Amino acid sequence: MKSDSPLRNDKRTIFGWAMYDWANSAYITVFGAVIGAFFTGTIMTGDTYWGMSGEALFSILIGVGSIGLLLAMPILGAVADYTDAKRRFLRNFAFVGAAFALLIAFIPDGQVPLFLIIVVVSQFGFVAANVFYDGFLPEIATDDTIDQVSSKGFALGYLGGGLYLLFALVLIMFSSDEPGAAFSETFAARIAIFGSGIWWMGFSFVSLARLPADGTGGARRSLGEYASIGFSRTIETTKKLREFPQLMMFVVAFIIYNSGIGTVIAISGPYAEDTLGLELETIALAFLIVQFIAVGGAFMLGALAKRIGPQRSVIITLVVWIAVAVMAYLLPAGNSTGFLALAAVIGFVLGGVQALSRSLYGTMIPEEASAEFFGFYSVFSKLSGIGPLIFGLVSVATGSGRAAILSIALFFVVGLIMLARVDVEEARASRDQWDFETA
Asked: Is the pTM of this model over 0.85?
C-alpha cells in the first residue's frame, strides 16, 4: 500500500472519518433495538400479515432488501473511483437515508406496506453511504495502522450509538400506556426513531468537514453514462477477481460468516419480542449493553490482532458466535437475565469481527480502486442478507423462531473453516499484479 499521501495517518482526517461511524450508528442501533420491535408490536396490529408473523416478515424484508442492493453497490463504487467524488456520494446517500429514517417515526399503526417501503429506502441510503465511507480507509491509513484506524471507527460508532440509545432507553422507561401518562411507549419509540435520523444527519456534517475533498477527475456525465462505466468496470473486476484465489476465498468466507452476524443484529429485537416475549425496555437495554461493551471489544480485539494477526483474531470471535447462536436457541421465554448476558458476549465480539474483517480486506485490495472494491465488499455484505431470509423462511416453515436461530450457527461454522484456509500474505502480495485500464 502506498504511503506518500499527506492525509495518511493524519489525526484530523482519521477523526473525521471515524465520526461518520458515530453519526450513522444512532440509526442502525435504533434499527435493531427499537424499529424491529416497533414493527412487530405496533405497526403489526395483528398476529400475522400476508400469512406471516411479524418476526418472519421483518427478517424476510431485510433479506430481500439486501439482495436487491447487489447490483447497485459495485456500480456506485466504480463510479466514485472514476469521478473521484467519494465525499459527495457519501453526503448524498447519508442525507437520503437520514431523511427516510425521520419518516419512519410518522408511519401510522397498521400501515405495513408503507413501513416496508420507507425502511427499505432508508436502509439503501445507509448501505450506499457506507460504500464511500469504507472506500476512504485505504487512503487515510497504511498497512501498519489500518487495523487500529478501522477499529477506531467501529469503537466511535458503538460509543455514539450507545449514547443515543441511552437517551432512547430513558424515554421508553419513563413512558407508560396507563391512562394519564405523559406519553405512551409507542410515542417514545417514535421520538427515538425520529431523533436517530436527526443525529445521523447532524453529525455527518462534522465528518464531511474533515474528510479529503473530492478531486477534479472525470467530467459530469448522465446517469446512463455513469451506469455504463460502472457496469463495465464491475464486470472486468469480477473477471480478474477469479484469478486471485486467496482474495476470493476470503470474500466467500466473509459472505458466509457475515450472514450469521447480520442475521443476529437484524432479528434480535423481533426475536426477543415475538419468541422470547420480552419487553421493549429489556430489548433496548440489551442493545445498550452491546453498544458500550463493543467499544472496548473493538479496541481489545484490535490490540489482539496486532499480536496474533487479524485472521486468527476473527477466527476466535467466530467460535464465540457459534456459542451465542446455540445459547439463544436454548434460552427460555421470558428469561431477561439470560438475554442480557448474551448481549454482553455479543458486544465483546461484534465490534472486533466487523472492524478486523474490514481492515483485513483493505490490506488485500489494490488502492487504485478502493471505492470500487469496497463496493464489492458492500455487495458481499448484501449477499449476507441471505441469512435473515433463511431465518424468515425457516421460521415460517417450522412456526418457530428457535429452529431458525439455531440454523444461523451453520453460517459461523462454515465461515470459520473457509477463513482458516485463506493465505493472507499471498493475497496481500498479489495486489501489485492487478492491471487497471483507464475507464
From this structure: no
Q: Which residues pair with 52 in a beta bridge?
A: 49
Please enumerate in sequence order all residues whose Cβ is within 8 A of that of 438, keeping only pairs 6 or more positions apart, or say none.
none
| Whole-number Cα distances in Å, 188 to 151, 230, 281 | 32, 43, 11
Q: What is the residue range of 85's domain?
A: 11-432
Residue 164 CA to residue 161 CA, distance in Å, equals 5
Cα distance between residue 203 and residue 24, in whole Å = 8
The ranges of the chain with pLDDT < 50 are 1-3, 437-439
Identify the pLDDT of residue 437. 47
pLDDT of residue 376: 65
CB 86 within 8 A of CB 371: yes
Q: Nearest Cα to 142, choosing from 245, 6, 329, 338?
A: 6
Q: How large is the C-alpha radius of gyration of the chain?
A: 21
Tell whether 1 is covered by a domain.
no
- 439 occurs within a structural domain: no
**How many domains does the chain divide into?**
1
Report residue 48 as a C-alpha cell: 400475522
Residues listed for the chain:
439
